[in-house]
Amino acid sequence: MVLPFSYEEILARYRAGQSATAIGRAAGVDCRTILRRIPEAERRTQLQAQRLNRPAPDVDADTIRTLRARGLTWEEIGAEVGLSAKTVRARA
């Protein structure tokens, strides 16, 4: 299969932040075809960087329990500490 983009251009676009889906759409192929052209180590590095750029707020279980004892709902606690209600419940 001949792609309209070279291997180097695919990597450059991916490293610039363009998703494999967007690159595939521009090339007229499926995103899996593009992902096959990107080394696995490169894909893993990008996923790890996404996780590292979103640090979790420093909220411990004691803080959540204290707020819950005051009568706040899970949603109110989540809004106060900057987490979702589901995450607050899981950390309590």
- Strands, total number: 0
Helix content: 55-70%
Class derived from helix and strand content? mainly alpha
Query: Strand content of the residues, in percent?
Result: under 5%
Cα distance, first to last residue?
53 Å
Overall shape: it is: rod-shaped
Radius of gyration, whole Å: 21 Å
What's the main sheet like? none
How are helices and strands ordered from N to C? HHHHHHH
How many structural domains are formed by the residues? 2
> Quaternary arrangement of the chains shown?
single chain
Counted by DSSP, the helix tally is 7
* Low-pLDDT sequence parts: none
The average pLDDT value, as a whole number, equals 85
